Amino acid sequence: MINAIDVQKLRQKTGSSMMECKKALTEANGDEGKAIEILKKKGEKVAESKILSRETKSGLIDAYVHGNAKVGVLLELDCETDFVARNEEFKELSHLLCLQIAAMAPKYVSVDQVPQEMIEEDRRIFREQFASTNKPAQMIEQIVEGKIKKQNEEVCLLTQPFIKDQDKRVADVINQAIAKLGEKITVKHFVRYAI
Q1: What does 123-156 look like in DSSP terms, one character per residue?
Q2: Cα separation of 111 and 165, whole Å?
Q3: 107-162 pLDDT per residue, tens
Q4: Does the predicted model carry a pTM greater than 0.90?
Q5: How far apart are CA 8 and CA 54, in angstroms?
Q6: In the chain, what are the domains?
């Protein structure tokens, strides 16, 4: 039997609706860990459908200046409606993304924005680093591709580990907000200034 206290605890941890939490706990036979996984998978599906099918026409510009006044961030975070743009949770997400950008200094929003010439130049450099080793060519290519992937994850905001929870990527945090707020949310653009 699922009780209201367990549902409320799960709701506080995940931010999902009471009904969704109750359904997830029922499906997981009361196991909170499994229920969290169920909600995460449902949230990813909801986020994916919203990302593919909807247009962002509203949003906000957020600004953040770090306490030492040597790092500043401007961020454009878009959503579908003005109602969500004024929502405190959306504003909090925007602020967290500004903190992420200030702390981790990404250069691009997503991997598809990384210039192909830069990727090819990095491949060439990595291949040269391993050219003098006795490793087979196929293994070198796997290592090179692994290094390219890791490097892209580090320079792209959406693939970076989230500063407040290293087990999540920034994209996961945005997808959770999409599932919770019910609208497509996109990072349109950001600029990081540093002295």
Answers
A1: HHHHHHHHTTS---HHHHHHHHHHHHHHHHHHHB
A2: 21
A3: 999 998 999 999 999 998 888 888 888 888 888 889 889 999 999 889 999 999 99
A4: no
A5: 31
A6: 2-51 (1.10.8.10), 56-109+155-192 (3.30.479.20), 114-150 (no CATH)
